[in-house]
């Protein structure tokens, strides 16, 4: 199994950063031109993007990736997994939030990945690492 980890500081309190990153629509900004659409709400009507919610990702009408939120601990942690993808055997994303000063938050974004085809995991993770670094930097500037 292969993994990556990206750390990014945000000049905002944990609650504000968590609120931003816990919304599926935020990823339209972070990962443009990739588009993210929630296709299933969570059971919690106050947090439709919470545990059990499913988002579809892609470009235009082609959105082959589906991710499901599996853990959502407010101001601490979000976990998701890819579902229904014939190319990916295992994908677990974890976003952790840590207050490092009054108005400063450290976000640690980790991904474990195992593709079904040998030697593909490292290439996918390299692309994801670049995209996540750029996306988190965009979001940090927006706060």
Question: Can you tag this structure with a few keywords?
Answer:
Alpha-D-Glucose-1,6-Bisphosphate, Chain A, domain 4; seven-stranded antiparallel β-sheet; SRPBCC family protein
| Helical percentage | 10-25%
What is the number of domains?
Answer: 1
CATH-scheme architecture: 2-Layer Sandwich
Q: What distance separates the N and C termini?
A: 34 Å
Number of helices: 3
Strand ordering within the main sheet: 1-7-6-5-4-3-2
CATH topology: Alpha-D-Glucose-1,6-Bisphosphate, Chain A, domain 4
Question: What is the structural class?
Answer: alpha+beta
CATH superfamily: START domain
Q: What is the chain-wise order of helices and strands?
A: EHHEEEEEEH
Proportion of beta-strand residues: over 45%
Question: What is the gyration radius calculated from CA atoms?
Answer: 15 Å
Number of strands: 7
CATH class: Alpha Beta
- Overall mean pLDDT stands at 94
Given as residue ranges, the uncertain stretches (5+ residues, pLDDT < 50) are: none
- Structural shape: globular
Main sheet characteristics: 7 strands, antiparallel
InterPro entries: Polyketide_cyclase/dehydratase, START-like_dom_sf
Organism: Acinetobacter towneri
Protein name: SRPBCC family protein
